[in-house]
Amino acid sequence: MNVMLNPGEVNVVIGLVTSRLLDSLELSEEAREAIRTWRSDRGPGASELDDFADEFNNQLMDYIDESTRRRTMRGGRFERETARERWS
After folding, report:
1. How far apart are CA 29 and CA 71, in angstroms?
2. Helix axes of 29-41 and 7-24: crossing angle, nearest 10 degrees
3. Measured between alpha carbons, how far is residue 80 from residues 63, 72, 74 in Å?
4. CA dist., res. 35 & res. 42, Å (int)
């Protein structure tokens, strides 16, 4: 399965996750500022966002590939297994 988010969609994910972190955890003001700075460095149009979106998509596709069950034929019968199960 292929899932590709564009940089704008990845920016929405960044906003949701960082907002949840800031609202839900007891963090020092220094940690809060570091999260806000990290988020603002990856704002719309920033080259850091494009780089992060590429890495995000790669990691997301790897996770989907590893956790998706596939039908494979082994010994004349079909089996369902994940990529991790197949290669371990």
Report:
1. 50
2. 170
3. 17, 6, 10
4. 11
- 38-68 pLDDT, tens per residue? 999 999 999 999 999 999 999 998 888 877 7
pTM of the predicted protein model = 0.73
Nearby residues of 82 by Cβ (< 8 Å), 6 or more positions away: 66, 67, 68, 69, 70
The lowest-confidence range among 11-15, 26-30, 60-64, 65-69 is 65-69
Residue-wise burial string across 30-59, b where 16 or more C-beta atoms lie within 10 A, e elsewhere: eeeeebeeebeebeeeeeebeebbeebbee
Round to whole Å and give the CA distance between 10 and 13: 5
> Which of helix, strand or coil describes residue 62?
helix
CA distances for 15 relative to 10, 26, 37, 44, 66, angstroms: 9, 18, 12, 11, 26
Token pair of 59, please? 């990691």
